Amino acid sequence: MKWCEVSIQTTHEATEIIAELFRDLGASGVVIEDLELLNNYITSGEWDYTDIPLAEKTDIVTEKAYLPVNGELEGRIQTFRQELKKLEQRGLDIAPALIELNELQDEDWSDTWKQYFHTEKPGERVVIKPTWESYEAGADELVIELDPGAAFGTGTHATTSMCICQLEKLVQPGMQVFDVGTGSGILSIIAAKLGAKSVQAVDYDDSVLKIVEENLVQNHVQDVVSVAQSDLMQNIHGKADLVIANIVADIIIRLFEQLDGHLEKNGTLLASGIIEDRIEDVLAAAAAHGYGVVERLEGRGWACIAFKRQADLSQG
């Protein structure tokens, strides 16, 4: 079978959204070549030895997806270009947005991309394990099994790994949790494993819902986590002790308009996916709606911020 490799050079901020576009086109997996992430691994001390030199230019991310060469390919590529233009019109920086198409022969890309994903431990307790790898868990570790090709959200990206570290501190047994923009469902699964009583996971893209449900079953939390399509919190019911929003700055800013009606007294919003250039915009929106910062993490050009109502902070 022939495959078309669709490659685009873009920004860190646009990475997650473009991965979503690729998935919508029918790609079973997305390969993200992030030289900044590679540099972090090289300097982390986690490798015993490597002769890979540090990359000098890390502001560009290359994303690749593999589509079958058939009668639908031309239409899919045209749709992809149109969706990219819409993102630019909405103000998202996707430059340089260079697209390359290469025809490839006889590769089973549903397996080949697996070489890019391995077991990771982004927090103190949580371990993210691809379904095809084995791992012997420690006494206090929580192992989350995912097929990273199913949907974006594997725990390796800075936005998600910072969220995971915060969830280990924030989730308490019996909590009600909302996960807005759930993606693969990884953060909902972690919240459930950490003891949340109930989790409502929602995403604007209804094509991810089946994927999330499969991941819930894989991790035995389908009785704790419910899944629904929703534009932000439109289809969420009740109030939560913790709202998770690992999305992008513009959507988080919109979320503040709906938050009060869905957050319990002394509840927390955990917001991530905020590129460093937009941190001040998010902080301004929070302040305008009466929210202050509890804790702020930054790494690899991204921020993860926990917010509470100013009234709750002053009483605490």
Polypeptide structure, described:
This protein is α/β, with parallel strands linked by helices. The chain folds into 2 domains: 2-115, Alpha-Beta Plaits, CATH 3.30.70; 117-315, Vaccinia Virus protein VP39 (Rossmann fold). Helices cover 31% and strands 29% of the residues. It is built from 10 helices and 13 strands. It has helices spanning 15-25, 35-43, 73-89, 109-112, 158-170, 186-193, 209-218, 249-259, 279-288, 310-315, and strands spanning 2-10, 30-34, 61-68, 98-105, 126-130, 142-146, 176-180, 198-203, 225-229, 240-246, 263-275, 291-299, 302-309. The strands form 3 sheets. It has a 7-stranded mixed β-sheet with strand order 9-8-7-10-11-13-12, with helices on both faces. Helix 1 packs antiparallel against helix 3 (73-89) and helix 8 (249-259) packs parallel to helix 9 (279-288). 41% of the residues are buried. The model is unreliable at 46-50 (pLDDT under 50).
Describe how the helices and strands are arranged.
Layout: E1 2-10, H1 15-25, E2 30-34, H2 35-43, E3 61-68, H3 73-89, E4 98-105, H4 109-112, E5 126-130, E6 142-146, H5 158-170, E7 176-180, H6 186-193, E8 198-203, H7 209-218, E9 225-229, E10 240-246, H8 249-259, E11 263-275, H9 279-288, E12 291-299, E13 302-309, H10 310-315
Parallel strand pairs: 5-6, 7-8, 7-10, 8-9, 10-11
Antiparallel strand pairs: 1-3, 1-4, 2-3, 11-13, 12-13
Helix pairs in contact: 1-3, 8-9
Keywords:
316 residues, alpha/beta, Alpha-Beta Plaits, Rossmann fold, 7-stranded mixed beta sheet, 4-stranded antiparallel beta sheet, 13 strands
